[in-house]
Amino acid sequence: MLLSWNYPTKVKYMIVRFIVFIIIFLFLWWLYRNIKVFIEQKSNSKPDTSPKMQQEDDMVQCAYCKIYTPKNHAIKGTKNHFFCSIEHKNQHFK
Q1: How far is CA 85 from CA 40, 78, 80, in A?
Q2: pTM of structure
Q3: Other CB atoms within 10 Å distance of the CB of residue 60
Q4: Which run of H or E residues covers position 70?
């Protein structure tokens, strides 16, 4: 056995401390590797939940207030005029 050598007690104590240190180091290294693998697997299997960039629509200018609005939200008037709201459309043609 390692401790049965004829070394002084201080040396035996240092040998035990060294072995304990190596065991703790190996355990922490194993733990680090497993956590790293777990995080990589989780990030690879995780579906992309971030909102997708919406396609940008053409912007059109309100004929009444001159503010730009996405074309799919705008209200079309006569003569290819677009408006940001029904109120502006009604006020423009008064």
Answers
A1: 49, 14, 15
A2: 0.41
A3: 20
A4: strand 68-70
Alpha helices in the chain (DSSP H): 9-45, 86-92
Mean pLDDT score, 8-29? 93
Residues 22-26: contacts with CB under 8 Å, at least 24 apart: none
- The mean pLDDT value for 45-55 works out to 56
- 66-85, pLDDT tens digit by residue? 999 888 888 888 888 889 99
Instruction: Kindly tell me the burial class for residue 88, based on how many C-beta atoms sit within 10 Å of its own C-beta (0-12, 13-18, 19 or more).
Output: buried
Query: Considering Cα of 41, then 42, then 46, then 50, what sign does the dihedral take?
Result: negative
Per-residue model confidence (pLDDT) at position 32: 96
